[in-house]
Amino acid sequence: MSATQGEPDDEPNDGHLATKWLGQDAVTSVHPQAQSPLFRLPPEMRRLIFLIALAETNVDTKPYVPGISESHFNDVSLEQMKDIYTRRLRHRMFDLECPAWLRPGSVCPQTIPLDLLVTCKRVYNETHRLIPYIKIHKFYLVHGPGATSKSSRGPKPALQYIPPPGVEVRNLHLLTQLRYFRYSRLSLQHQLAKVASDIEHLQLTLRPLSAIVPGRWITLFHEPFLVNPYTLSSTSLEDMEFTRKRMARGETLQIATDGWAGAFLDFPALRTLTMEFDHNELQQENLERLAQWSRQWRLPLPGNRVLVSETPPSMRTWRGMRTHDDWNCHVCGKPFPQPRTQCENCQWRARGRGPRMITWTVTWVARKSEP
Ligand SMILES: [Zn+2]
Questions:
Q1: In which domain of life is the source organism classified (predicted)?
Q2: Ligand 1 center to residue 214 CA distance, Å?
Q3: pLDDT tens, position by position, 279-307
Q4: pTM metric for this prediction
Q5: d(C-alpha 371, C-alpha 332), whole Å
Q6: How far is the C-alpha of 286 from the C-alpha of 239, rounded, in Å?
């Protein structure tokens, strides 16, 4: 989500940021700070500066799994990989200290540095109500911090998102499992019921983790990425391809609103939806086809509105861990890499790493439904 999403209405044009939307906690009698170049800028410029200054940052000192940071996932070459296959590392990469929900952006908590707010009363007035528009609340469904290892820190896993007391939740990032997600509207309805009426920007990350056994080394990276908003029952690659071709021929298909794709009808304030599809390189082609096809999905919203995708999807790659692979090497079939292996995938495994991971990102915006 971009920093420009903080958009309180009713902007006055007297050079001050709007105060109408300030709560009673605003300081009403303040020095105008006319000597400050910051306050001689147009208010929209100043807001942009504040939004950048107040962007969320990683709390690197509190990693969810000690030793695992963002750089762990850099998509580097084998030659650049310094790690070697030590007993400790081998143990680590095979056991639960490296759970499969770890991914870029999910290695530690994030926070908004609030020091700026105490520098000046006028700065405080103009910024403190921006915070709910900047803060992206994260909800890890079952597989997440605190769920899979004694050494991983963070909140305990949950089946429903409970917002912190007194906090407005405008932006929510739900990291969920493909299997939990794709069958029913009720799942998402229940998981986000406490905040559904307030959310304006929803981000969903779907990945093929186990549906049944949290805290165990079980993933579903051997399965293709299957999701289809036009079918209620389970889908298949053939079924997705069939649906895609019918749409390409110009057929108008109905979204299965009892399925997950109808869940957005419960989000009256929703303005954007972002979906991330995570899988490993074995599914590269299927994932790209899915991302391109998903741009044609028109997901219904309440109030005669619909979510449409108006921008091309984007793709990024990152280096996964052993848990993002099958137990046996998917290329040569061996469970453990041999010291002088010719298999490139096993050379990665020997360094404690897994396959290259692919993330496709697709964004939808709310629009009036065409008659
Ligand atoms: Zn191999």
A1: Eukaryota
A2: 27
A3: 999 899 999 999 999 999 999 999 999 99
A4: 0.85
A5: 55
A6: 13
